Amino acid sequence: ILTGKYQHYEDIKQGVFQERFEAEVPTIFEYFRKTYDIPEHQTLLINGEDRTQEEFYSFSNHHNFGIKYKSTALSLFRFKVWYGRYQKEQGKLNQQQIRELDKLEKAYYRANGQIDYTAPMNTYWQNWLDYYKNDTRTRPRGDALLTEFTLRAMKELQPRLMMINYNDPDYVHWGNKNHYYRGIKIIDNGIKRLCEYVEKDPFYKDNTVFIAVPDCGRDSSSFAYCPFQHHFNSRSSHEIFAMLWGKGIPQNKIERSQVNQINVAATVAAIMGFESKEAEGDALKI
After folding, report:
1. CA 240, CA 245: separation in Å to the nearest integer?
2. CA dihedral of 162, 202, 145, 106, whole degrees rounded to 10
3. Is the per-residue pLDDT at 191 higher than 60?
4. pLDDT digits over 113-132, tens only?
5. What's this model's pTM, rounded to 2 decimal places?
6. What local confidence, expressed as pLDDT, does residue 111 receive?
7. CB of 75 within 8 A of CB of 46?
8. pLDDT for residue 257
9. Other residues' Cβ atoms within 10 Å of the Cβ of residue 186
10. Which of 153, 155, 202, 211 has a Cα at 20 to 30 A from 45?
11. 72, 79, 77, 75: which is closest to 41 by C-alpha?
């Protein structure tokens, strides 16, 4: 979705059960930032709290793009690192807590454990701390947390390109199909809140496009205890949908020809007026 190219998913050092994936071609964030000289904090990748591997998707290893044009990740992982440093500077961490912070930082291997926080991001996380007091009992969890991250970012950072990696429906892998439906309801409510905010904010009103697309389909295997899986490589597990709405998107139009997930990156580029030269998919005709 981010690169417009299908690439075999494997650890960069072929490690067993490792998930250090690096894209070979630029992400749409990199194209966008380089074309328009957009600051990092206005391109956001908003990730789930237990998916640290997605922190690495913020930039490719392409020699003409890469870390210089990376996006900023918003996640509970990023807050934990920021808060740990904040506590350490105030002398409030014991040796065990310092070791735990060091372990967290090293999980972000692409920058040798040096996650940088720009001034706008330091202010963002400080405001988050001031509001929630690092109280796990009051702050949202799961995909509701991602929606809250996004709404606060829209108010404080005015991002111009965002990708939200909602993932609550994945809890269906535990075997309870109710987790699937509950996850979808949470996402639907989150999108509703985002749309309502866009309608009342002059910065975004009549100037925003939404694209909703899942990463995979659902298996049709009759042998699965829980039917909402995607591990049997059935045709249906590769069949997904995409919805587009907002400025310049015609209402009630249905694309009936076969298109692919890699068309999303080129479509975003076409809508926003920049080139995605390494993307293999074609932009949808809107």
Report:
1. 17
2. 40
3. yes
4. 678 899 999 999 999 999 99
5. 0.91
6. 65
7. yes
8. 85
9. 20
10. 202
11. 72
Question: DSSP letter string over the chain?
Answer: --SSS------TT--TT------SS--HHHHHHHHHT--GGGEEEE--TT-GGGGGGGS---TTSGGGGPPEEESHHHHHHHHHHHHHHTT---HHHHHHHHHHHHH-GGGTT-----HHHHHHHHHHHHHHTT-TTTS--HHHHHHHHHHHHHHHT--SEEEE---GGGGGGGS-HHHHHHHHHHHHHHHHHHHHHHHH-TTTTTS-EEEE--S------TT-SSS----S--GGGG----EEEETTPPTT----S---TTHHHHHHHHHHT---TT--SPPP--
Q: Band of the pLDDT at 12, cuts 50, 70, 90? A: low
User: What does the block give as tokens for 215?
Assistant: 């990463």
Q: What is the mean pLDDT of the chain?
A: 89
Which of 55, 67, 54 has the alpha carbon at shortest distance from 26?
67
The pair of structure tokens assigned to 151 is 């709404």
Determine the pLDDT at residue 20: 66
177 within 8 A of 227, measured Cβ to Cβ:
yes
Tokens of 258: 């076969």
Angle, nearest 10°, between helix axes 142-156 and 177-200?
A: 10
